[in-house]
């Protein structure tokens, strides 16, 4: 058997064992930092994985609910077109109602304005409304009252113009006072002019 010869000597062995101990003690903090980093990363990563898992469960539930939807509801192209046409019809009806309402309000304002300005000596026998023209026919005991009535109507903001179309003696008498017949035409402003 061959003999082993120690060429390094006793002192060198000791130095070598000391140097390996120093290297291992320097490596320990690095390993601890790596372990802490792994723990820290896993603590941060765990909630994210839980959130992803929850989202996946939510998607599965939604897929299940979608599969439970009846086929006639899924194919909503025809129902969408049907709803759109009903909405269009409703909007057309609303615009018709708004137009009728504005005409009614316009006629009401016209009647109220005429009523508030008529003198005691003037009577209205008929009122005709065609488009934006009002024709008043009536009688009066004083022709000057008809002209004053026309003047007050002409000064109102809702009327464009007011003019006496005709005035003539009727031959009728009221309590011995001769009567005159008149026709007044009033052109109303459009709603957009007010």
Please explain how this structure is put together:
With 194 residues, this protein is an alpha+beta fold. It has a domain at 121-188: Gyrase A, domain 2, CATH 3.30.1360. It is 60% helix and 23% strand. The protein contains 4 helices and 4 strands, in the order H-H-H-E-E-H-E-E. It has helices at 10-68, 71-74, 77-117, 143-154; strands at residues 122-130, 133-140, 159-174, 177-188. The chain has a 4-stranded antiparallel beta sheet, covered by helices on one side. A hairpin with a 2-residue loop joins strand 1 and strand 2.
Sum up the structure in keywords:
Gyrase A, domain 2; four-stranded antiparallel sheet; rod-shaped
Annotation field: number of helices = 4
Briefly note the CATH topology name of the domain at 121-188: Gyrase A, domain 2
Assign the CATH architecture of the domain at 121-188. 2-Layer Sandwich
What's the gyration radius in Å?
51 Å
Structural class: alpha+beta
What's the helix and strand layout?
Elements: H1 10-68, H2 71-74, H3 77-117, E1 122-130, E2 133-140, H4 143-154, E3 159-174, E4 177-188
Quick synopsis:
The chain is built from four helices and four strands; from the N terminus they run αααββαββ. The protein has helices spanning 10-68, 71-74, 77-117, 143-154, and strands spanning 122-130, 133-140, 159-174, 177-188. The termini are far apart.
């Amino acid at each position: 058997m061959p003999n082993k010869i120690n060429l390094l000597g006793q002192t060198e062995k000791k130095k070598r064992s000391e140097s390996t101990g120093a290297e291992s003690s320097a490596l320990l903090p690095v390993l601890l930092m790596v372990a802490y980093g792994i723990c820290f990363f896993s603590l941060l990563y765990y909630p994210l994985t839980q959130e992803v898992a929850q989202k996946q469960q939510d998607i599965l539930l939604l897929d299940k609910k979608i599969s439970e939807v009846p086929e006639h509801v899924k194919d909503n192209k025809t129902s969408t077109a049907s709803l759109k046409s009903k909405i269009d019809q409703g909007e057309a009806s609303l615009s018709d109602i708004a137009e009728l309402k504005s005409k009614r309000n316009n006629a009401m304002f016209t009647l109220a304005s005429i009523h508030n300005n008529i003198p005691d000596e003037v009577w209205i026998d008929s009122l005709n409304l065609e488009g934006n023209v009002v024709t008043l026919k009536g009688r009066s005991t004083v022709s000057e009252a008809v002209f004053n009535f026309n003047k007050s109507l002409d000064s109102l903001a809702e009327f464009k113009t007011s003019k006496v179309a005709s005035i003539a003696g009727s031959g009728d008498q009221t309590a011995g006072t001769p009567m005159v017949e008149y026709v007044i035409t009033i052109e109303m402003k459009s709603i957009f002019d007010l």
